Amino acid sequence: MSTVVVEAAGLAELYARHASGSTPAYQRVKDLVSEEIANGRWQQDEALPSESQFVAALGLSRMTVNRALRELAAEGVIRRVMGVGSFVAPDKGSSALVAVHNIADEIVRRGHRYGARVLALREEHAEPQLGAQLGLGEDGRVFHSRVVHYEDDLAIQLEDRYVNPDFAPGYLEQDFTLRTPFTFLSKVAPLGRGEHIVEAVLASPEESGILGVPSAEPCLLIQRRTWSRDQLVSIARLLHPGSRYRLEGAFDTH
Known about the structure:
This protein is α+β, with helices and mostly antiparallel strands. The chain has 8 helices and 10 strands. Strand 1 and strand 2 form a beta hairpin. The termini are far apart.
């Protein structure tokens, strides 16, 4: 990681631009940092000045500076690493809120590099509830894959997917580092309809390690079910680091 080099006098000058009798000091610090990031002077993954540098340069209390940086981190503008410092957060990837898309295509469309790592790809006995949902019967077998999807070497999604073997007989022979499970399933079992359930969660310790995020970082979980020819084909659990991903949607009131 590189370091943003900002002299104390430079910080004070930037802070003065946001001076306003009605604006709280912590908000002025937030505005300063946000503006420097938005105009490109402070780049993704660069280190911000330390709390002590802000305090010394701006003549503010440590509590005021700490509040500004904490709120910026909560808003996804910066990320804080305990014992190391604060850094400009990477741009968040985004996905359509309702539509079902291929994550590799989304990443490439943003002009970034896609990569994948397969953690598991096997046939398993389907648990009763899972087997019932997929219509597999009491002793049914299910295909199970776990794949980590990367955007420019940052893990952006942990995909945990169960598939009805009747609709995807060649699933276990696929190389999911070259094409995603979504791409393969779209060809062998064209999507008829889908369902999303979205919630905020904390990842398990294992999941946090796989995604490379602190255990306390909120994550975005999408539980997705997809049907083909009125038969449920796939159940997927898609886990995203909250600091790296967002859902977007648009609607028309007419």
